[in-house]
Structures are given as C-alpha cells and as structure tokens.
Amino acid sequence: MNIPRKIEKLFQAVEVMEGDGATVRRTIGSPKLRNFTPFIVFDHATVGSEAGFPEHPHRGQETISYCLSGSIDHEDFTGRRGTLTAGDLQFMTAGRGIMHAEMPRGSPDGRPAVGIQVWVDLPEALKYVEPRYRYMNVAQVPKVEVDQGRVTVAVISGQSHGKESKQDLTYTPIWYLDITIRPGGRVKQIVPIGWNTFAYVLEGTTTFHSAAARKEAKRYHNVIFDSQGTHIEASVPEDGEVSRFLLLSGEPLKQRIVHHGPFVCTSEEEVYQAISDFRNGKNGFERAISWRSSITNPISN
Length: 301
Hints:
The chain is mainly beta. It has one helix spanning 268-280, and strands at residues 7-12, 14-18, 22-26, 39-47, 53-58, 61-69, 71-76, 81-85, 89-93, 98-104, 113-121, 132-136, 143-146, 151-157, 159-160, 163-164, 174-181, 186-190, 196-203, 206-209, 214-217, 221-225, 231-235, 243-250, 258-260, 263-265. 4% of the residues lie in helices and 48% in strands. The longest helix is centred in the C-terminal third of the chain and has 13 residues, at 268-280.
C-alpha cells in the first residue's frame, strides 16, 4: 500500500547551553521528547570561536556529527583527530568508552560554526564494542534531484530515488537525508516500514501532507511522524521560500533507555558502573584519567 505518514507531534526546539558556551537547539532529549528510539539526542548547535565542547566521555551510543557551516576540530584519547568542514560528517561509535573533544573553529568571516549532532542508541548486545569511526566528506554524499530540479536530496545514510549511501555507517540501522525544496517543489520520500521517523526544519517552512490533512512546520521545529505508512510527502508553495529539512528514520530497539549525561545504558546499575569506570579509569576508560586534548587551539594541518 502507498500511505503517507501522519504527523503525530510538532514542536519547536528548546534552546539550551551545552559544553563551554555553546548554544544548542535541542528537540529529542528535551522535556518535549525524552527519546524516540533509536534516537536519544538531536542537537542543532551554533558555536562561536570562544566556545566548544572540551574533553568529555561517552559510552553506549553512536554519535553523528554533521557540519553545516564553518569547521569543527575533533580529537580523542586514542590519538585520532581531524577537521570537519561544511557538508562533512563523522560517525562515531562510543561503545565501551571514548573520551574526546570537539572545538568548532567558526568561519573566516567570523560567523560561528553550525552543526547537527545526533545520538543513536546501540543494541544492548553491542553496548561494549570497541570504539570506531566512519568519515564522509561532502563529495562522498550522493545527491539526487527530483521534481524537475525543484527538490534536492543528499543521501547521508539510506536510499532516495535510486541513490544509495555508503554502507555500515552505524551499527543501528538508520536513514539520514538532507532535503531542500524550492518554491513549487514537492517530494515523496519512502521510509522503512515500522521505523521511527522525524523531520527537523533547518530553513524556511515545509508543508507535510497526509491522506487527511496537511501541516506546516517552520524553522527549528521537529515533526514526529506516526509509525504507520510507507512514505512522507512534503512541499513548498509556488509563492513560498526555499525549505530545507533533515529527515531521519531508525529501526526501533526493544530495550530500556537509561540516559545519564554522556552515558546511554539499559539499566541504572550500568549507569553507576559507567560513572565508576570513568572516574577510576577502568573497562574502556584506562586512558581517560591522564588524557588532555590539544585542540582548545585549532589543529594545524
């Protein structure tokens, strides 16, 4: 059957301060929506040159960092380090434990760096895997144009209109699409049946359609779709402005979510253990006690 998904919930991001002076618009992981399995956190961060995310740990999740403008330096206690520029992505599996820092550089014209970070839950059986990374620069992200060029889809993860992303980016299966609709454009995007799906509007206003109704979602609003249906439909009227939204869909995990700060576990006992391991440098955090990041100043290439 060919059924567009209905909107279950529509709400504006909550602005919070994170890290060292970073402004974050948070939707998932906020009081409005604690989690939406497998998604734990969805942050839209704007970070000036004097702000950032100094050394901090993670366990039990995967993070996806998407640089929208400016550039972002990254370094962790395994010795990995690098820089994301506009359109680049990093997929990081924290697994049993990682400690890292993320310090945006901003832009040459002085504008702050802007990026998206998504936290994806790991299946319980993979909570303690070794940390790993997958990187994609902007040239590696397939793009497809539909509706006579009025719609562009960047296929970060998943599929769209015959284009497919790189494989094995995350342990937990997800789709991640960056969709731009120009005035008069309309797109029908399939999503995997039964997966939890949401859209976050980065620019403009997007009209989402279902069989019985349509709703407008403005900039910085998150759209949570009903679990039933084969696709989402979105458009911009002829007299509208360009709209850009991120569409994410993920396979639900049938497990408890116990989220405490940087740790995502399945029980309170595991959270206590994660805190103890980090403080005592054990079970994946052996290098955490003495490690200090070098990227409070930009990495020199």
